[in-house]
Amino acid sequence: MQKCLFVLMALLLPLCGLKAQGNEEVPLGTQLNYFKYGTGGIGLHNFGWYVGGKYGKTKSRLDDRIWELDIWRTRHPKEVRISNPSFINPRPYVLGKLNDAFFLHVGYGTQRLIFDKSEKSGVEVRYQLSIGPSFALLKPIYLDILYPISPNEPRQLTTRSERYDPNQHFENNIYGSSRFSSGINEIKLLPGLFVKGGFIFEWGAFTEEIKILEAGLAVDIFPQGVPVMSFVPEKQFFLSFYLGFHLGKRW
Question: How far apart are CA 19 and CA 158, in angstroms?
Fold first, then answer.
């Protein structure tokens, strides 16, 4: 818990003292040709990948308000994919995995200019902070389990797709993973909170087209704990470092 509070303070602290280099606050509309923008992108973090989009509205020359929606594919650090060595080309699976986890972020925040760029070239740097609800979408894991065709023919086997049960399913009776769609109708939702802070790097001429890199860290907090793996404590805090690329447009 103390580690999580320290991270939250580290995310919030830069906003207290950020000042753009060589810029003063300018009333809205005196130097701006665009007042809104939208971007969409993909990225990686230390537990997986993410996709998402942002909508921004200019408040002043230095500050924007942003709304964002993204989904993060999150893996547990103890996940190890294995295959049944008794068969040719079985689907790999993660022994002990209970659920696939996706974090849905619905955020509101701010971007503040740190370094400006000229109209024709250069790199613009902004600090971004957003906060909002985080929903853990948990899809149960289904595996293809081996069964004899009949009691009289124990060596002739077939498979049945079943929800993984760590007390019944083991390496010697698991053929492989089932289709990803198995279990979609049983998705469970856990509510939580996320805070994300980082830096936005935009390069090139200041036109309606947007190309940016973003990098930073995010904290997801789930009071109930997120059940991903069996026989290990359920994690409540997820600290992720991320790097992403976005394309978009101003208007």
Answer: 67
